[in-house]
Amino acid sequence: MTAIAMSDTHQSPLQLQPLLQRAAWLRKLYFTRAAFSFVWVALAFTVAKGSPIVATALLVVYPAWDALANLWDARMTGGAKANPTQVLNAWISALVTVAVAVSLGLKLQLILAIFGAWAIVAGLLQLATAIRRRKSDKGQWVMMLSGAQSALAGGFFVAQQGSAAPVVQTFAGYAGVGAVYFLISGLVILFRKAKGGAGGWASEKG
User: What is the pLDDT of residues 10-64, one digit of tens each?
Assistant: First the structure.
């Protein structure tokens, strides 16, 4: 009975290895996404102010990067079948990339509306992903907050459509907040690993 109880509450090093690998991967993903967004925001508030070409490029690159990041995430955490929300998010981000490029090329004043609708849908999908992962992965409460905040910000962008608000700088505030959320999630994983070691991964949730 003792042996059975021990096997139920403690995982062997072999069983823990996939958990450690997954945690290391998510930490890398969150830090990478945070770094990308911080650089994007810095360019938006500096170079893009004096260069319409850079501003246009930034607006196209952001959803394209989000599509790649979601595909990367899905591939490294079990594939498409195990990660339907990330795959759907990737496809939507890819479509948004095309929509943004077309609207810019045709000089249509729809960018804030496009980004607003995208932020709502992407935020809800991120929230769904974090809820699904909350029992197996660390830092997901931060991703849940990020997803909810994204959906709310999307409504603000839609409301701003037609105003004189600078598109790149308006969206940069959203991107900056998202970067902070990714950074915090990565730090949560890092600090819990340092604090708890292998045993911490087996026992801690969320």
Answer: 444 434 457 788 889 999 999 999 999 999 999 999 999 999 999 999 999 999 9
Count up the domains in the chain and report the number: 1
Query: Can you spell out the DSSP letters for the chain?
Result: -HHHHHHHH---HHHHHHHHHHHHHHHHHHHHHHHHHHHHHHHHHTHHHH-HHHHHHHHHHHHHHHHHHHHHHHHHTT-TTT-HHHHHHHHHHHHHHHHHHHHHHTT-S-HHHHHHHHHHHHHHHHHHHHHHHTTTSTTHHHHHHHHHHHHHHHHHHHHHTTSS--HHHHHHHHHHHHHHHHHHHHHHHHHHHHHHHHHHHHH---
Residue 64 covered by a domain: yes
Query: Has residue 7 been placed in a domain?
Result: no
Domain that holds residue 138: 20-199
